[in-house]
Amino acid sequence: MSFTAQDVAKLREMTAAGMMDCKKALTETQGNMEEAVNYLRQKGIATAAKKAGNIAAEGVIAAKVSADKKSAVIVEVNAQTDFVAKNEDFKAFVDKVTTIAIEKKTKDLESLLKADISGSSVQDAATQLTAKIGEKIDVRRVQFLETSGLAAIYVHPVGSKIGVVVTLSEADATKAADLAMHIAASSPAPEYINKEEIPAEAIAKEKEIEAGKDDLKGKPAEIVDKIVTGRVDKLLAAKVLTEQPFIKDPNQKVSQYLGSAKVESFVRFNLGEGIEKKQSNFADEVAAMMTA
Fold first, then answer.
1. Is the same domain home to 105 and 172?
2. In the chain, fewer beta carbons within 10 Å around the N or the C end?
3. Composition of the chain by helix, strand, coil, percent to 5
4. Are residues 71 and 164 in the same domain?
5. pTM of the entire structure?
6. Which helix (H) or strand (E) holds 212?
7. Bridge partners of 192?
8. 274: part of which helix (H) or strand (E)?
9. Beta partners for 75?
10. What is the three-class DSSP state of 246?
11. Residue range 51-77, pLDDT digits in tens
12. Per-residue pLDDT tens for 120-131?
């Protein structure tokens, strides 16, 4: 029995298995949809369908720098529990994905998910690993930076939950490494390289918030304006990388430490940021298992 592309798409929708796995299943079963579903279940691939709706907010941040130190990449790969993040298969998968990203200079998630990894796509490999491990595995995001100066990376060794890639205009390995560590450790995390990058809308919004605070009510307009401007300048400066106190020497700003070296770009990933984590307790989990 033959099958069509629509059949492959339908099987994928039914099982959440990868496109190539669905095609192979239909080939092996001569296009019989029911048998193809059973084939995928036997291979442990269709079990990933049950995990597709689960929230994956744990995992790791991984980063690599090219051999010539001219480019670097950072990737976030999620799992559902911190325990799986320590699994050897999971760690091997993350390492392969990050290596592919740096070798192919991957600048967007879609390209990374389509990239080949051991004969299948990264997306399909993640689905297969989901079936094998029993937790949803999700390659969530990737950023690639390139420079004519020097690129550096830093991933916090405890849990690999914070990672940074940064590029400098000068090939100073010590300054680049120190800067990457500073960005990872700084609080608040920097959002801008310098003051000139702060959007006018952001400044206007902060001024509006400050001007509406109770402690300024009843004060003359010119006094309010002066206080608001001072507060907003201080607030936004804390988010400007070059204006922050340098982590290794708080008596000088980052810009002073860097000297003639200029920050070209940086990316900071904090594991799971922006993901709404599911809250549950042990009793709820047991009840859910009993009704599954």
1. yes
2. C
3. 50, 20, 30
4. yes
5. 0.74
6. none
7. 240
8. none
9. 62, 142
10. strand
11. 555 566 789 999 999 999 999 999 999
12. 899 999 988 988
CA nearest 103: which of 128, 77, 75, 127?
Answer: 75
- The residues facing 64 across adjacent strands are 73
Q: What is the spatial distance between Cα 2 and Cα 147, in angstroms, rounded to a whole number?
A: 51
What CATH number is given to the structural domain containing 62?
A: 3.30.479.20
What is the residue range of 119's domain? Answer: 58-195+242-270
pLDDT surpasses 70 at 118: yes
**One domain, residues 211 and 75:** no
Same domain, 170 and 63: yes
Higher pLDDT, residue 13 or 251: 251
Q: For residue range 137-173, what is the model confidence (pLDDT) as tens digits? A: 889 999 999 999 999 999 998 778 999 999 999 999 9
The total number of structural domains that make up the chain: 3
Q: Which residue has the tokens 């130190």?
A: 69
Q: Is residue 229 part of a domain?
A: yes
